[in-house]
Write a structure and sequence with these properties.
alpha/beta; two-stranded parallel ribbon; Rossmann fold; 34% helix; 7-stranded parallel sheet; binds NADP nicotinamide-adenine-dinucleotide phosphate
Length: 276
């Protein structure tokens, strides 16, 4: 029989552990699944499973969060997680004697390929503009088609696990700004991403899809310059090829309308916390 309060976190890495700690603190039973589950925080029950290997035998649980991340940025790594791994987990859940009451899939904002700096939200068009976006969108489609009660969170760039690559590149004087018009970047502090997941798990009637992004899309060049000032690093120089790829501002209006409140409403509060 399903443990009425148990949550399975599949892909229990940085984000999953932040979610797990919050749930454990609120009295939930939490099972953390990853290939090497030794060393998970106290209170999260470890379950070592390679989701890409075969449909796993999963315990009966009330809710599931899938937040496994690819080992690398290439198409094969994305397919391993979002096609094979996610497909195997979905098969196991869909055929379980007691399917979960809610399944939350974490993907990303990558499939928004808009280039004109426009605002995008959950109703904006997404395109499988590369193999990675295709794998993400297919994963979302499979959840919708599974018959399971599911919802999707698409976070933008997550930060807040220590210094991170952006601050490191500034501190080491390696950060550069591509020439040409500046571009929008979108981000969310990892603690807010975890809190948003816990919030969505608790909603009585969640929407099928939410963007996970803070309240201030940021001119990327201005962000780099300001952060460099904050930490006393050299101002990044403009060099290299003009930036290509997506350029859009992601809206968090739906997440806010659901009642979620940010600890770090913009990058300013978030990076202040990171820098202590
Ligand atoms: N980083 C960003 O800026 C960003 C932006 C948007 C969305 N996201 C999404 O946010 C989610 C969480 O990211 P994160 O930062 O928490 O990543 P992370 O720390 O790398 O954690 C991902 C976990 O997935 C597990 N995993 C990978 N392949 C697996 C498999 N075949 N079977 C079982 N577990 C597997 C890994 O553990 P083992 O190695 O032990 O298996 C790892 O602990 C991901 O969905 C990611 O795509 C991230």
């Amino acid at each position: 029989m399903a443990d009425s309060a148990a949550v399975l976190i599949a892909g229990c890495g940085d984000l999953g552990q932040r979610v797990g700690r919050l749930l454990v603190a609120s009295g939930r039973r939490v099972i953390g699944l990853r290939r090497r589950a030794g060393g998970l925080p106290i209170g999260i029950e470890p379950l070592s499973v390679d989701l890409a290997a075969a449909a796993p035998s999963v315990p009966a649980v009330d809710q599931v969060v899938f937040c496994a991340a690819p080992d690398a940025g290439d198409a094969a790594a994305y397919r391993r997680v979002y096609e094979t791994g996610w497909g195997n987990l979905l098969s196991a859940l869909a055929t379980a004697r007691e399917p979960p009451r809610r399944v939350l899939l974490v993907t990303s904002t990558r499939p928004y390929a808009q280039r004109d700096g426009q605002w995008v939200d959950e109703d904006s068009p997404v395109t499988p503009h590369d193999a990675q976006s295709e794998a993400l969108l297919q994963a979302e489609t499979r959840l919708r088609d599974s018959g399971l009660p599911g919802l999707v969170l698409r976070p933008a760039g997550l930060y807040g696990a220590g210094e991170g690559p952006l601050l490191r590149s500034l501190r080491e004087g390696r950060a550069t700004i591509p020439p040409g018009p500046s571009r929008w970047s979108n981000r969310m502090h990892r603690d807010d991403a975890a809190r948003a997941i816990v919030h969505l798990l608790a909603l009585a009637e969640p929407a099928p899809l939410y963007l996970g992004v803070d309240g201030e899309p940021t001119d990327h060049a201005a962000l780099l310059r300001e952060l460099a000032q904050w930490i006393g690093a050299p101002a990044p120089v403009s060099t290299g090829a003009p930036a290509a790829g997506a350029n859009r501002r992601c809206s968090n209006a739906r997440l806010l309308a659901s009642g979620f409140r940010f600890l770090y409403p913009t990058w300013r509060e978030g990076y202040r916390a990171v820098l202590g």
